């Protein structure tokens, strides 16, 4: 931490670019930023994980364009200051002189903070690019294996760093990532940029579980971020890690899952429900009547056939058949226009999940899904990435600072 | 109109596809749909033009896959019934039987109507594809000319039909276009699909003019949809048209304008303001102090230099220098990820404008802007399309029905 602070002073003293200096100025106003604490961190954790899901997502990945750990450390200090300002709706403060580029790009001026959270993560490629940090690489931070049916776009996959920005206002999320990317020029270069959108209803969860583009309620049995016991059990990295800097953090998996909507929509209602294992209208499991009825995988009809088919998504994904594995899903719908190759919509689910162990949780689960889940016939995974998400920084420190100490 | 109704009966009687029949069933419930009148039409005009701008856009274009005007007429009847249901938040009603594909794809189930408007238009390609309708083609409905600097993507440009769906909830707009596209299978095929987003603030206009991705307030001097006199003068087609079916309609121009954000952000504040002709923070013209101060193109500084530069955007676009021309702009920001060719964001303004005469209004204005506007150095137009927007249908009739009578 003291090293981080000295870097800040050094940067400020060295006549850094206007934008960088501006952020440092902003970061030195702790009293006005105290209100940021709730959005910027979530106790010991970064925000945007246990946080109730906002309506809009921008998920960006970056390549490193330096081989100097000091450059990265400096950027994380700059980003931490900027994020503290952004999450309270402050513009990045600059000199304001006419002769300089504005520190802030301005498109969110006048917009409220909109519940913005920004979550920073480190991919395997970061440690490939910075051999000096190899000893700090968590053993579990390996590129995900390929699964049957994957059709991954390399440009959308992987990455050394990720930024997950979520907000109630899409321009606020866009503005955050755009300005953080700009502050990173010379250290990182934008690799992929995905816009996602949840259901935008003013009154939020009281209207029930949102639906995905398949038309089904999505997330009925998801972990709840406020369930601290479950979060500790499934999501937050604990003492089991080989890297002390990652304790209190987690692993983020991102998968761009394209849905073949035309084919799906041409299935009968019965076929759709058999694939998912739930009633479309109510969201109830086919073994029950109400959305939140417990899933009974043993229920049969009067011909002794299982009500929830052997290949039904909720059976194959059921924790009870996956060694008790649960993950925290936090995905968004995406709609990226027409695929010129097929003339169909390039749309689906930008799947994001958090877990303490990507190998025994996501990878094990996805291996089963790819092989057995009937829903796999209607989806194609087009990107894949894994990032280690450090915990919230200690007060006065930068996100990820412990990686360098 | 009587022909339209008889087509509906014919279609219903002929055992049409479940989806089509379902829509007709919905359309035959006039009492429950009476509430739709305000969203579905706007007096004599289609909604989505004079309507206060919603937060989210889906703009889709279609090719015709038939050469039969009767197929198109039938589709417009189906679409009209579906739109009436969608704008009041109703799902497309179907048989509900397990053995049939659901009439409605379901992703908006439980969402409110969200201020949805759907606006239907006809492009030059429609009349190319249907020679039988040539006599009904308005003389002004010609593909737009190319302008200096255009780099148009043919796949995103043109089209026989457009649907502009706007709503406060992005999934509601998506759902509308997806389901209308589905109902059109066999008659139209999706050509392009653009998602756009405005500033999403719960309290709307009271927070002031929204900003574009350049960071400047956008639309300060725009026409106001509720100014009926201005709308009649500049937007609604009147007796001057050669096609009676278009009276009370308008012309929609769509241009996907990519903004070179990295270059723009590296300009000094002074340079940015000189390009636009306004102060970035307040939105005031450089000749004034407050956002809504009248633009004074003759104002000079103490060196007798114009305060608003010769190439400033607001000077080149000024109605007083364009024969009094005004247009109604109704565009949205877009952010479509990283351009793999340059590594920069593919983002900008999906420009939509409405006017009664595309030639003397948009084309004349854009010719001046492309040649003289300093802002053109920071933008590239990547799509172009023109559509004739018919007026609201008479009660009981379908959108565009007058084209066939």
What does this structure look like?
The structure is a homodimer of 405-residue chains. Chain A has 405 residues and is α+β, with helices and mostly antiparallel strands. Chain A is built from twelve helices and eleven strands. In chain A, strand 9 and strand 10 form a beta hairpin. The N and C termini of chain A lie close together (8 Å). Chains A and B meet through helix 7, strand 6, helix 9, helix 10 and strand 9 of A and helix 7, strand 6, helix 9, helix 10 and strand 9 of B.
Chart the SSEs and their pairings:
The structure is a homodimer of 405-residue chains.
Chain A: H1 2-13, H2 18-27, H3 30-33, H4 37-40, E1 41-42, E2 45-46, E3 56-64, H5 69-86, E4 117-122, H6 124-129, E5 161-167, H7 170-183, E6 188-197, H8 228-234, E7 250-259, H9 261-265, H10 269-276, H11 313-316, E8 328-329, E9 332-338, E10 345-355, H12 359-372, E11 379-389
- Chain pair with largest interface: A-B, 70 and 70 residues
Number of E-state strands of chain A: 11
Roughly what is the average pLDDT of chain A, rounded to an integer?
89
Q: Which residues of chain A sit in consecutive blocks of at least 5 with pLDDT less than 50?
A: 1-37, 201-206
């Amino acid at each position: 931490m003291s090293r981080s602070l000295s870097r800040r002073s050094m940067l400020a003293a060295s006549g850094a670019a206007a934008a960088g200096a501006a952020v440092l100025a902003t970061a030195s106003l702790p009293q006005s930023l105290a209100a940021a604490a709730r959005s910027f961190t979530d106790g010991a954790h970064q925000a945007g994980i246990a946080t109730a899901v906002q309506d809009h997502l921008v998920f960006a990945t970056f390549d490193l364009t330096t081989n100097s750990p000091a450059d990265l450390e400096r950027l994380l200090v700059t980003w931490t200051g900027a994020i503290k300002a952004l999450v309270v709706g402050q513009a990045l403060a600059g000199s304001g002189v006419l002769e300089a580029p504005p520190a802030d790009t301005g498109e969110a001026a006048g917009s409220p903070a909109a519940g913005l959270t920004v979550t920073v993560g480190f991919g395997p490629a970061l440690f490939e690019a910075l051999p000096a940090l190899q000893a700090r690489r968590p053993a579990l931070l390996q590129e995900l294996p390929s699964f049957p049916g994957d059709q991954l776009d390399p440009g959308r996959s992987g990455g050394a760093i990720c930024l997950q920005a979520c907000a109630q206002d899409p321009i606020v999320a866009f503005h955050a990532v755009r300005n953080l990317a700009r502050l990173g020029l010379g250290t990182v270069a934008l690799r992929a940029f995905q816009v996602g959108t949840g259901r935008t209803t003013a009154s939020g969860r009281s209207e029930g579980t949102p639906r995905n583009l398949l038309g089904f309620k999505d997330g009925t049995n998801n972990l709840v971020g406020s369930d601290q016991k479950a979060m500790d059990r499934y999501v937050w990295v604990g003492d089991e890690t080989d890297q002390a800097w990652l304790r209190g953090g987690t692993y983020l998996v991102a998968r761009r899952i394209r849905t073949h909507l035309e084919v799906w929509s041409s299935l009968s209602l019965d076929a759709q429900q058999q694939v998912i294992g739930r009633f479309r209208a109510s969201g109830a499991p086919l073994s029950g009547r109400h959305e939140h009825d417990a899933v009974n995988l043993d229920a049969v009809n009067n011909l002794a056939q299982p009500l929830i088919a052997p290949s039904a998504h909720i059976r194959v994904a059921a924790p009870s058949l996956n060694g008790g594995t649960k993950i925290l899903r936090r995905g968004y719908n995406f709609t990226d226009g027409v695929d010129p190759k097929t003339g169909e919509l390039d749309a689906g689910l930008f799947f994001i999940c958090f877990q303490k162990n990507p190998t025994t949780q996501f990878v094990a689960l996805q291996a089963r899904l790819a092989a057995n889940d009937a829903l796999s016939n209607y989806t194609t995974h087009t990107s894949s990435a894994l990032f280690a998400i450090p915990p919230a920084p200690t007060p006065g420190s930068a996100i990820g600072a412990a990686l360098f100490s």
